[in-house]
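> run fold glucose-1-phosphate adenylyltransferase
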Amino acid sequence: MAAVVEAGHAASKQKTEAHQTKQEFLAVFEKLRDELLEDSILAGQPESSKDWLRTMLDYNVPHGKLNRGMAVLDVLLAARGGDVTEKEREAANVLGWCIELVRVQAVIVFLPALQTRATAQLDRDVASILNLTNGAPDPRPADISRTVLGIILGGGAGSRLYPLTKQRAKPAVPLGANYRLIDIPVSNCINSGVNKIYCLTQFNSASLNRHLSQAYNSNVGGYNSRGFVEVLAASQTTTQKNWFQGTADAVRQYLWLFEEATRGGVEDYLILSGDHLYRMDYSEFVAAHRRAGAEITVAALPCIEKEAEAFGLMKIDDSGRILEFAEKPKGDALRAMQVDTTLLGLDAETAARKPYIASMGIYLCKASAMHHLLTERFTTQNDFGSDIIPGAKDLGMHVQAHLFKGYWEDIGTIRAFYESNLGLTDSPNPNFSFYDKDAPIYTMSRFLPPCKVLSAEVEMSILGDGCTVNQGSRIVHSVIGLRSRIGQDCLIEDTMLMGADYYEQGAELDECARLDKCVPIGVGSGSHIKGAIVDKNARIGRFCKIINVDGVEEANMEQQGYVIRDGVVVIIKDTTIDDGTII
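> ok
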């Protein structure tokens, strides 16, 4: 009994000392805060920068976000077994805040050019100089896997990508020989440490569900990480009889499920699209969002005037806070949306060429703010881009812009999809590459044999697993998908072949040859295909010409097995094109 009482006294004493330590730390913080705000380093800075600094100093320490002084004490206590003198305690308090102070001052000095990566590097440099860590800390928020929930919006019926979406959801459309569109946002999430991921779909979700269940196991992100990738299809319930009416409505209908995650520590919802091609480190996005104290942060893309009129545009103040939205403005309304993009970190030359910032349709929102907006403020509005995000700004909520300077493409149309895929073949440095070892793109393991090329020519092309290219054929600037079979003496130019879901067995091929009428899956000998997309399991006969001979821009020949969209011939999935056909 005495031992228990003694242990209780010890615990109480430790708790009291911890409280005193924090009070001492906060006292040091208050002093340094006042000194910094009066420091000459702020001279000449815009008032918004000072406001941002005050917000940061008031928010970070009281909320325990960057309590580095306590972290220093933890290191000392561990090293000394709890034996820390009052002088060391005071020094640790000051030292811990000074680490953060150096970073804050550097942000002010270089504002706005200093970006998240540079800030993270400064953290590593300071820690290294002070010898407080054995190695460079990870610049991403340490708790991102626990506190961020990824929500990928599968989109609507995909009418702009039809007929590629005839039998599949838009995120399930094949990409780059081996992948599907959904692999892009899922891989970005995993590489960024976000391992709790839902994909919301409404149309043709069977193949998408199958792909995700086979490609991503139940402990995404590592053993016992409790990560997952799951499809949430639109469904009717006793209280909800409607299908998804838009992006925001899709989230609203599953808000009850997402809020279960908040009880496990989720603080922010990361809203993504399933039909974009880009590589992004969301951990930087999350860090910037939390550093700004924003309720919503919108990923922003700098763009030229010709591109800008196709997007929703934003105006910002010199701290990056969004002041105004405009949806696809034209003429004077477009020019009124110009901003100084150096405020977000662009160099002067690039900023002069790209004076607009467009929304990428990628949002990070506090879970509490999302609940408030969707269930209390905008209960009937259904779209994030046109309704919810501008509405949040109008309510006075803190809506921040975060600049993304990499390659990004919305591949929601046939032409954009076609050009994005062929762009992967550009040598030596395509806009988007699948060969980044630091941020790989994951997909389903299929255990297919290597590609086989038999006395054929291949130039500026990508060949997927399990392909066969026969003698005398030539492939130029094309993407050849899984299990593709290309016969002898074929010419494939500027084309995407999606390949096949299965191999035809020897007996089937022998029967085709015997009947001399059956067309096997793949491209028959002597055929010429140019400027086309050939969907999976298509059967192209011998000596066909699919080259859009008449230069048609639009044609709906679905009964004949193809359509033409934006000048691109699309051969529909499972279609048979007879020998000698000319398109």
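The radius of gyration is 28 Å.
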